[in-house]
């Protein structure tokens, strides 16, 4: 009997879970489709390269969409079971709400393991590969992307502004370049004229600048000014010296730990890397926390249909992500230890979920229980 019930609940959650992943992933992908479509129309990028770019983006999307889809799936599944009185039938057969939880927990553990694998392996691989193919496409079409009197930021860490640009001859006039690839020594370059081109191997982007100056800021009040008649600014591909820098999303677990433990790493960077390391494991466990929260919430929404389940899931997700973002920002600024800041949302939602689960098992309304608790708290203060 329990085996049949377990398979029934797992099948109910799995179908909605897969549907949720597709829907949420498409929603996140919509933000990128405009730019990807522009690559095809304006630059003639082959569809095969666009497909590869979408593939490389998938891990970054799935890290978010798996917990989102799982929360929605459990809410809708238990909302339907409750609306059709199947939960009542299970309870009349001697099963408590806690005894119905194991198949939900099994699904949650699968979602957690899948998200951890994607977060620790897929995200660094996907981000690195996406940067590489984006740079390859840009190096072949760099001249067609620059616009005069418009800030150009196609290359990470570099912002270009030019008063005049001749696309046919690839010449620029009135140039300002902000080069922040080296965060410790950012440079501002002014040049009267210049020309855009590629290196002989066609793998690097270079600009030859004429009659200008380089302003470099260092630690404290350190400042350096260099005037030049001709200066070649070269941007190499990802992973190369002088190329596009790697950030925390491009690093695996081992590299993150190495950089955190490296005394030469600046404190601000170390805090940011520590927050990213903790998020690689804390965020996937949101699926397990959502399992505890979603079951009682789904049962409580039995009279409101699927629209209420969707609304509740969006509300819970917003609350979780806002709290997570605030605490992560606090950790990156050194206000809280990274492990505490990144795991605290899971702890808060787990405690709230266990409370809601207890109220649901006692056949008490969650909303009524919360109101009673608030009234009791107000009465004590009075």
Care to describe what's here?
This protein is an alpha+beta fold. The protein has two domains: 2-136 and 249-381, no CATH class; 157-235. 64% of the residues lie in helices and 15% in strands. It has ten helices and five strands. The protein has a five-stranded antiparallel beta sheet with strand order 1-2-3-4-5. A hairpin with a 5-residue loop joins β4 (205-217) and β5. α2 packs antiparallel against α4 (97-145) and α6 (267-282) runs parallel beside α9 (338-361). The two termini are 52 Å apart.
Provide the structure class.
Answer: alpha+beta
Number of spatially distinct domains: 2
Alpha carbon gyration radius: 27 Å
Low-confidence parts lasting 5 or more residues at pLDDT below 50? Answer: 373-377
Question: What are the SSEs and their pairings?
Answer:
Blueprint: H1 2-43, H2 47-83, H3 86-92, H4 97-145, E1 158-166, E2 171-179, E3 187-198, E4 205-217, E5 223-235, H5 253-261, H6 267-282, H7 286-300, H8 305-332, H9 338-361, H10 366-381
Antiparallel strand pairs: 1-2, 2-3, 3-4, 4-5
In short:
It is built from ten helices and five strands; from the N terminus they run ααααβββββαααααα. The protein has helices at about 1-45, 45-85, 85-90, 95-145, 255-260, 265-280, 285-300, 305-330, 340-360, 365-380; strands at about 160-165, 170-180, 185-200, 205-215, 225-235. Helix 6 runs parallel beside helix 9.
């Amino acid at each position: 009997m329990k085996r049949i019930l377990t398979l029934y609940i797992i099948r109910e959650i799995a179908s909605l879970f897969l549907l949720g992943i597709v829907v949420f992933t498409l929603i996140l992908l919509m933000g990128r489709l405009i730019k990807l479509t522009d690559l095809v129309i304006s630059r003639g990028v082959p569809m095969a390269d666009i497909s590869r770019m979408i593939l490389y983006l998938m891990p970054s999307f799935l890290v978010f969409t798996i917990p989102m889809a799982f929360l929605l799936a459990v809410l809708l599944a238990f909302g339907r079971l409750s609306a059709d009185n199947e939960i009542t039938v299970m309870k009349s057969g001697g099963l408590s709400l806690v005894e119905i939880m194991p198949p939900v927990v099994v699904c949650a553990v699968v979602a957690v393991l899948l998200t951890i694998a994607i977060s620790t392996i897929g995200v660094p691989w996907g981000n690195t590969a996406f940067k590489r193919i984006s740079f390859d496409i840009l190096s072949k079409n760099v001249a067609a992307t620059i616009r005069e009197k418009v800030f150009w930021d196609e290359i990470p860490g570099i912002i270009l502004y030019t008063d005049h640009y001749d696309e046919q001859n690839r010449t620029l006039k009135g140039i300002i370049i902000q080069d922040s690839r080296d965060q410790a020594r950012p440079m501002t370059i002014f040049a009267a004229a210049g020309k855009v081109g590629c290196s002989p191997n066609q793998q690097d982007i270079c600009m030859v600048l004429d009659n200008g100056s380089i302003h470099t800021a260092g630690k404290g009040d350190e400042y350096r000014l260099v005037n030049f008649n001709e200066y070649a600014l070269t941007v190499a591909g990802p992973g190369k010296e002088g190329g596009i820098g790697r950030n925390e999303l491009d690093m695996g677990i081992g590299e993150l730990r190495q950089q955190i433990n490296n005394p030469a790493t600046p404190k601000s960077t170390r805090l940011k890397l520590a927050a990213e390391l903790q998020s690689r494991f804390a965020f996937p466990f949101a699926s397990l926390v959502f399992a505890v929260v979603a079951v009682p919430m789904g049962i409580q929404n039995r009279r409101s249909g699927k629209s209420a389940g969707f609304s509740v899931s969006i509300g819970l997700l917003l609350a979780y992500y806002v709290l997570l973002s605030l605490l992560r920002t606090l950790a990156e600024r050194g206000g809280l230890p990274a492990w505490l800041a990144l795991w605290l949302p899971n702890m808060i939602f787990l405690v709230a979920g266990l409370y809601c689960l207890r109220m649901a098992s006692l056949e008490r309304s969650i909303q009524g229980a919360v109101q009673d608790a608030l009234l009791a708290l107000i009465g004590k203060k009075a």
